[in-house]
């Protein structure tokens, strides 16, 4: 049954990456936006796409069940892809009109809206099939289930990276060679087809009913967060993981007597809401430190791709490498490393750390953050070299010089992204599992918005009097992406140092796991 989730998730990534990976080229070459405007549009769209899972998760956890949310969201998803495909077919007859631009943005928003319910629910729904519902100390059977769940997240990421690889490599080539209509139509057909096998397995799934009372629960949660935050500021309470778990246990009364349950129902409900509020507040500092990784995560689909368009791309006399296809190097490195992670990487780390697990989840995220900094340093050096060659001669640097930064980012993903998925899923109570997945996705949503904001601020500060030349000039030989990459590397280094400080004092809500970074 797990194979169904992996295949469906992989097909969804194929469809999304088939659109997103080369969207910046579509916006500059077809829609005729500037480099900075296209990058900001892609970043803003990705921001909306990764933020809407918070809404989808709330609806799934409070009003609808996850299975129904997945099916309803998939319909919106397919409609959005169909609308986007239609814009590519009609763009030649209505070029650059306000109506066509508006319809393009509407289609992208429909895709975001569909993915907002689809992604967090599908992943949480898959993990539910392995989940045990008890929040009590782990038995041997529970520990086996927990190990299966950790393996599920790794193989889940392997599945979506396989789909991403096909979407980035195949679709970028088809879009550049055969046109955007066919290039958008294939992901649309693939996404529509993937819904069928998932819906057919309904009878075999483990379903969990929503808690209900969504409106009141959200109001109570917001009040609890405000009250808890106020007490934190005044130094009256500390966010203790032990206290959060104790409050959560009250969700399951140990006494089944009707009188006692009725008497304590309101008090238990308030305690549960307070527990949920504390869980969210405890996770926010770690969540915030992941934002710089998310900003770096946006570079392959934007400025890395624009870099590639100015470099030597030909193999032989006729074949040109689509710049967006180099993003496949990220997926290939993930696919190659993922199966070797448990068999080679973990045994080596066990020797180094002298720990049976090798590294814990937070150490795994920290290693990925460090590797992303290395990728930015390499990207800065490569861009400096490209500028030197292009400014003094008509020669161009080979596009294959970009491969190291792509590969290292892929390796960093294996550590950070998989670690984030497991961290946010395991650090929330059972009634917030979908919200945990949404918190993980929202890191990339907020990171995308921050990336767009950062581009706007830097463009304003570095523009000349005419506003034509900046770090992000349309003429890549006049731009200074090398300085931008150095700046991102510096910010990421600061974020990593703060992350290490935070996780040294962080205590996992699961007492069976020590998540401290030491």
UniProtKB/TrEMBL annotation:
Major place of residence: membrane
Pfam families in UniProt: PTR2
The keyword Ion transport is annotated on this UniProt entry: no
Entry superkingdom: Eukaryota
Keywords assigned by UniProt, alphabetized: Membrane, Transmembrane, Transmembrane helix
Family matches, as InterPro entries: MFS_trans_sf (IPR036259), POT_fam (IPR000109)
CC terms in the record's Gene Ontology section: membrane
UniProt GO MF annotations: transmembrane transporter activity
Family in the record: Belongs to the major facilitator superfamily. Proton-dependent oligopeptide transporter (POT/PTR) (TC 2.A.17) family.
The protein, known as: NRT1/ PTR FAMILY 5.8
Organism the protein comes from: Thalictrum thalictroides (Rue-anemone)
